[in-house]
Amino acid sequence: MNKSAQTSVPINPLISNRWSPRSFDLDKEVNHDDLLAILEAGRWAPSANNLQPWKFTVGVRGDEVFEKIASTLADFNKLWAPNSSAMILISAEVMKSDGSPIHTALYDAGIAASLMTMEATSRGLHTHQMAGFDRTAMKEAFDLGKNFRHVAVLVIGTLAPADLLTDALKERETAERSRKSLSQISNFH
Ligand SMILES: Cc1cc2nc3c(=O)[nH]c(=O)nc-3n(C[C@H](O)[C@H](O)[C@H](O)COP(=O)(O)O)c2cc1C
Questions:
Q1: Does the keyword Oxidoreductase apply (predicted)?
Q2: What is the pLDDT of residue 139?
Q3: Of all protein residues, whose CA lies closest to atom 13 belonging to ligand 1?
């Protein structure tokens, strides 16, 4: 199954080869060094004023953090995400300690997440981000204080065959990927 993006012009294969599967290999663990490097990639993301307004809370399958993150997921995500090897809760510092807002916090955290997906892809791993989780339950499970907002969960794992999924999930897994055209999203095309 080739899920590489069919781009209108050639782009870096690291970007075109990234996609978000739901079939992850339950027998595979993520290597400690790979996980560290993925976090390091996020650490070196650019951010407004170099504030680095993010926190990455890491759970590895089998540990308590992983179980806690998994327990907050929306039912649909609970169907597949627990088979991944690691989950990273990405939280953004939306307010400084003096109470003033960090307007770019979500943007900055998104860049960090994006770089983490690239690092993971370069290591032959697959990622899938999720915003489908219970925000109240997540806040109770991981309270980083009132200045932080939990933004997304990034799962990391090894791709498994789509056949291992239920029919409904398999249909999504094998569906053609689509995007708006460049002319729809940009004045330059
Ligand atoms: C912030 C964010 C939240 C997402 N939330 C979910 C989710 O809760 N469940 C899910 O199955 N996929 C989720 N996705 C995955 C998107 O559906 C997916 O990235 C999109 O369809 C494009 O597919 P691709 O990543 O394979 O290119 C999310 C992606 C992002 C970036």
A1: yes
A2: 98
A3: 130
